[in-house]
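Usage example:
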Amino acid sequence: MKRLFAPLVVVLMVMFTAAPLMIAWAPCEATMGLVQKIFYFHVPSAMMMFLSAFVCGVASVAYLFKGRPAADRLACAAGELVVVFGAIVLVTGPLWARKSWGVWWQWDARLTSTLLMWMIFLAYLLVRKYGGPGSEKLGAAMALFGTANVPFVYISVNIWRTVHPTTNVIPLLPPQMKGPLWFSAAAFLLLYLLILAVRVRLEERRAELEHAYLLAEEI
Amino acid sequence: MFLRVAWLVMRKDLTIEVRSREILYTTAFFAVSCVLVFAFALVKEGRPLEDAAAGILWIAIAFAGTLALGRTFERERHAETLRALMLAPTSRPAIYLGKLLGIIALLAVVEAVLVPLVGLLFHAPFGARPFMMLALLATGTLGFSAVGTLFAAMLVRARSRDVLLPVLLYPITIPVIIAGVRGTAALLEPVPDIALAGMWLSILTFFDVVFVTLSLWTFEPLMTE
Amino acid sequence: MNFDFDRIAIDDVSRHFGRRRALSRVSLRVHAGEVVGLLGPNGAGKSTLLAILATLLAPSAGTVRYGDRVAREIGPDLRSRLGLLAHDLHLYPELTARENLLFFARLYGVSRPGAAVEASLARAGLTERAGESVTGYSRGMRQRLALERALIHEPRLLLLDEPFTGLDDASTAALVSRLKGLRDEGRLVVLATHDLDVAEGLLDRAAVLRDGRLVAFEVAGDRLRERYRAHLERN
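Running the assembly step on the lines above writes:
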């Protein structure tokens, strides 16, 4: 993995350079115009956010029941990335909404569900930071419960919204948009994996440092 | 054996509560104060906002519940009695269950006060469909309490535990609040929408099953170092 | 609940909390029919070791064997053979002495809890005031009650963390004689204490801990205080 890191960064840079070209080449959506193209950042960010939440949840279960510190490090990194990519979704969403419909927030089902998941993982970071010793386990419980909550959040928010009908956010995708979308998604996936790897490595270094301190005390 | 232990723990909690009534009175009073605060915020010219009653009821339950959970476990922390419970030669999830049942009993009494009060102040016919209403309250309280009991227990030894309990609990239990409020609101319509309320009820039931199971499963690893 | 043991083997046990090393490669043997003391300054690791013996904490390294088996192999039954009296007395202040004992007796699966509770109350000399809530008790009374609570299920291993703190002379003497009685019954008693005067009269063997390390483990005997100080100064 380490040897792949540098070439993958290069690939990523190429992809992000090519992205604007791809996006510009994609057709302009009829009603919303240029602003709709924020969708190529908004949707892949949302995908990465939910992927990261899933990774965090699974790693947390492994940590809780097997006690493996590597699992905890992965959960920590994934949890942070949920908040990062979630922030991107929650900023690009309203920007898009404002330009398209004139209001910043519309309680759209998907955006609201995302907000809730974002809050859950923000709480995850808070408990890890402020919970004192043993907060890794507390965080793991939060991540597990948060991930298990995804279907409930989605269902309840959706039904809550559809009883009062509202405008649909995502229009039907014409085929020419799919190409750039999958390209963006692949670029974001690569970005996610690389950042995750870096962050996990940082945690590993921190653990090595703690271990060194412990050994130093022996002497 | 499992149920016996849960029963013992619950009975001990209720005995203490019946004797001192501290948590009951303070929680009930707090819930009523909440309702009054909402009344002043949401009643305009003597007429409450539409659908306010359902929301206010469930928010008051959530706030009161958080308070009660915090206090219950603070009691166990006081003389480290939680440790003595964990040292018992029994299955540890049984202790969780006992605590959960105690909290539900407490909240049931508080809700018995809250529901008529909110109905009165906000002109809401909670008694129109009593069984459905009771079912919603029961499943909602169970869902909230199940997650709350687990979190409150695991936070007993944590720093900043007072503020962390709501921080962790509210985001996870938002589906419960949504379902409870919308289900109750459906029952408060001029023509109660039983089908819709029933659907929210099934969501709540499903939530309860999943999260009680998860809590039982994770209680032991969370409480041991 | 058939599991029992007559010795404990603590092998190379270490425990750290983040960067702080609380115990460092401690090895001890404790046998039935003896009182072992854990001596040492604050922060030496005495409470941590007691918590590990009580299975409340897992060691970061090393093993603790009860008889021949490790805690995880034995399962929840092990806890029926352990009794812990910590500084916080694990008593519910709103309940009466009798109710406290009854609750724990039933929780710990004591057969015929009613009789066991009455016997414990008698031993602690609390029968007349057994119907009062514990908040009204003096420290000494609470200590006696807490000790009975820790013993209600007749554990093989009794762990005590600073049990003499805040006790007057009479209560201290009573506790010492009680512990000696338990030792003579064939139980294992491990206690952490600061009080060297009491220790001299009570302990069979003493383990001196400092900064998480075991610096000495020897027969207590007389002149314990001098030897204790010597051990600490040397290291």
